[in-house]
Structure formats: structure tokens, C-alpha cells
Amino acid sequence: MAQQLSFLEQLERPTIESLTKPDQVFHSEEWQFVTRHPETTRFERKSARVDQKVLAKCLSAFGNGPAVEGGVVCIGIENDGSVTGCKSYPESKIQSLEYMGREHCPDGRFETNRLKVKNSKDEDDFIIRARVHYVENRLVELTDQTAYCRESTNSRKLTETEKQEIRINKGERAFELEDCLLRYPEDFRESLLVSFCNRVRHSRGGSQEVGDTDILVSMRLGRMSGGAFIANNVCALVFARDPRKIFPGAYVHFLRYEGTEERSGKDYNVTKDRILEGSILDIIKDTASTLEASLREFTEYRNGKFYQSPEYPRDAWYELLVNASVHRSYHSKNQPVFIKMFDNRLSVENPGGFMPSVTPENMFHKPRNPFLMFILREFGEVRCISEGTKRIRRELRDASLPDLAYYADNNSVCATLSNDISKRTNSLDSEAYKALGEAVAFSLDGDERKIINYVIEHGHINVSEALRILSTTYWHTAKAKMQRLVKRGILDFVSKKHRDPDSHYVLRRLKKG
């Protein structure tokens, strides 16, 4: 007996069309399956009356992605899905259709075939199928320098910025190696450059007779022109006194929020706002210090003993920080990296979507900035192998925390760590543990630990706030739990008048006179 799915389960199931690959549509002999296929990011219908330049746009759009599978264009099907076919047209027109407007898009890659069908008049006919391939190594432009991408069921014209980003992502343009606008050596940290060159000499057994500029050129940090060293973009990011002169968004914006949501206006809930700037090494170092000062440490009670554990494993969040700094898009010059810390999660968002062919599921090694990564490897900040995400997930798994979550679009990637705070009922913020002492900490139940953790984090708690974090939904029960902590000398009740709406509880040791 077939299993009956609920309405919600049916909604969540992927459609057949979404699972169909372009090659299946292109090679299938079942004409009804092909002609009834709806338009998607990988399938396009066109009338045989179509203009050549419109077909050229399809070559550009499927050739540029973002889907790396390319797509299929079926010629002889109207927008409403009716099959009008191609048989009624002269052979010269048919051959022109099979040429797919290539004279307008010479970089497009495709192949065609003909499929026998029944047209809307129930007559024998045929349609033309064009299998358009994704082009991995270059932007696919038309001869008029316009280019397109596939967006939903349409071919959208790319902006100049988007075209340059695709060129960089496909390796057609070595943006990292382009000359920067800074003057050498005036705009650079000379002592850091000298130290770097000495490091390279030592690691490679080089002679002191090899000059610093020779080493910088060999490490692809610039070029010589007329006897002068011309620094490139990688050199500016790592060694410039002020990289933001040419990359205004080369900084990290750290935001600490109270609660689990981002609010604005009168409910604005940012409690810490920091801009971390400088060279990329400075940014990584200073952001790491800011994060360490902001993260909590928990003391967990297990088997009659207390064990300390960090809110997030250091290797996990540090890897995310380095990845965001190294693999972000620096062509998006004005956009910074955002790090947002909430009570229950830590999010790191960097400019630039995933590289072509990379998804949250496969996460294979395909760096956007390979030359920058190579230089930072000399400082021990990155390892040029595909292990970063695996290490993060391993660290989270060992700490019994939820898996790393990714959200990405064409413009950015956001990676999120969750601290599973709602399930740490047996944990106590280490600051609270130090303030209370082991004897008192040992005596607290799960709800009491939640109350104390909240007070340590926020400085105070009222009954309404307690209701949001406790297992009870009753106002009087929540108040009774806190009153018991007052009687035990752990909390103090602060109130200026009878029925004071601003009354709250504080940790007795932290009470201010």
C-alpha cells in the first residue's frame, strides 16, 4: 500500500522539473515530457519566430550561470506552452535557428538536435533543442559587450560590476595582481615588508644577496617597471599602511546584539559596535581579540563535577574569520565583512557569493583570492588545502553543538554557528560560577542556572524576561523562582516603589550601592 503524504509533506517535496537535469531534457525521446516541461533556471522555450540576438542572449545567460549545469533552449514552443514546431519554415531559417545567434555570441558553447513532436494541430512536426553549456574559464559576452545571467525563468542583463565579478570568479581576470594606486615604499609598512622578505629567505634558504624587491616580485606582490617596484592589490591588502584608501570596505564590522533578533528604531538592541581595520593581518588579529572578549565560557555540571567549555570552539570561529577575510570579494570594494553576535548564534557574512560549482553541500577548495591566500600562508594564517570547513564541523561535533549553517546568494555568503543555549540547561556561565562559588553553583537547578546566566549576561532580570527563558509560562511561578534565589542570598530585588514597573533582580555580588 502506497504511503499517503500529508499536505505539508507534499508541498515540501521537490517537483520533477526541479530534479530534471539539462542533459535529460536534451536527450529524451519522449516529446511530451520535453514540450510540457515548464521554464526554469535551466530550461527556456522559444518560438521559431525568435530573433537571432535573443538566442545569443540565451548562450550568454546559460554560459554565465549561476547554475554550472548550463541549460536547454527548445525552439518551436510558444510562451504559453503550445507546440507550433519548425516544419513550416524553410531550411535556411531552420539552419539559422540551429546556429543559435552565434555570430552575436562567439564564446557561447552549445550543440543542437531535432526532436519529432506533434504540434498543436496534431500534425507531425519537430522542435530544435539547443544544449547550452556553462563556460568555466571566461565571461560569455555578446559582440556588443553586453552579457547576461540566468535568473529564475529569465535572462537578465549583467551590470558592469557583475561582469567584472564573474571574470574574477572564473579566473579570467587576475584582480589580485593588478597594480594598486598606492606609492611604494611611502604608503607601505616597510618594517613589515623587510620582516616578510627575511622570513621568505629563511624558509627557502635564500641568500642575503637577493634583494627585497626581487623577493616581492617572485612572491607575486608586484612587478618592476623602469627600475621601480609597482605594488599590486595583494601587496596593498597585506602591507599597506591604510588599505582602505583603495578598498574602502576592507574592514570588519562587529556588532553584539541583546537577544536573538536584530532590531532597529526605538528597539535598537546593539550593545557593542566596533570597526576593525588595518592590514588584513591586523584585522584578523584585532577581530579575534574582540571576539574572545565578547564570548562566554560555560561551566557544565556532569557526573558530580563542573567542567568548563567555551561558547564556541576557538578553532571554529577563528577559521570562519580567516575564511571571510581571505575568500571575500575585494572587487566589491565598499562592502565590509559583518560579524553579528546574538545570544544564541554567531554569524559571519562576507561579500561575494560562492565560487562557481561550490555549494554548501560540497564545499570543495576553489579560492577566490589564491595569491592572497598564498601570502597569508607564509604567516601561518591559512593552509592551502581543503580542510577548513571539515575542521569547523569536526570541532562543533566534538563540542556537541549544532552543525555549521550557510546562507548564500550571488552577492554574499553568511556562515552561522549556534551555541545551543536553549539546551544548556545544565550549564552555568563561568562568570556566574566564579561569582557564586562551587557550593552554591552545585545547588542550582536547571531553571535557576538559566536565571543566573541571564543576569550575568544582561546585568539584571525581571519577571517578563524570566518567562521567555524558563520552562514555565506562569508569571507567578517565574516570580517565585526568583524570590527563592533572593531568600538564599543569591539575588537582590531592586524596586523604588510599590508596584514598580521597573523592578528587577540583580546578582547580590554585583549590586551597586
Give me some keywords for this one.
513 residues; six-stranded mixed β-sheet; alpha+beta; 19 strands
Which regions are unreliable across 5 or more consecutive residues at pLDDT < 50?
5-17
Oligomer: single chain
The strands making up the biggest β-sheet line up spatially as 10-9-13-14-16-15
What percent of the residues sit in helical stretches (DSSP H or I)? 25-40%
Binned strand content = 15-25%
Strand-pairing-aware structural class = alpha+beta
What is the rounded distance between the termini? Answer: 73 Å
Q: Quick check: average pLDDT?
A: 85
Task: Choose one word for the global shape.
Answer: flat
Folded structure, characterized:
The protein has 513 residues and is of the alpha+beta class. The chain contains 19 helices and 19 strands. The protein has helices at residues 7-12, 16-19, 22-27, 31-35, 52-64, 91-98, 160-169, 190-204, 212-218, 233-239, 280-294, 314-327, 370-378, 388-398, 430-436, 438-443, 446-458, 463-469, 475-487, and strands at residues 43-46, 71-75, 110-118, 124-132, 148-151, 154-157, 222-225, 228-231, 252-257, 270-276, 297-302, 305-310, 337-341, 345-351, 405-408, 412-418, 427-429, 491-494, 504-507. The strands form 6 sheets. The chain has a 6-stranded mixed β-sheet, covered by helices on one side. Strands 1-2-4-3 form a 4-stranded mixed β-sheet. The chain has a 3-stranded antiparallel β-sheet with strand order 12-11-17. A hairpin with a 3-residue loop joins strand 15 and strand 16. The radius of gyration is 30 Å and the shape is flat. The termini are far apart.
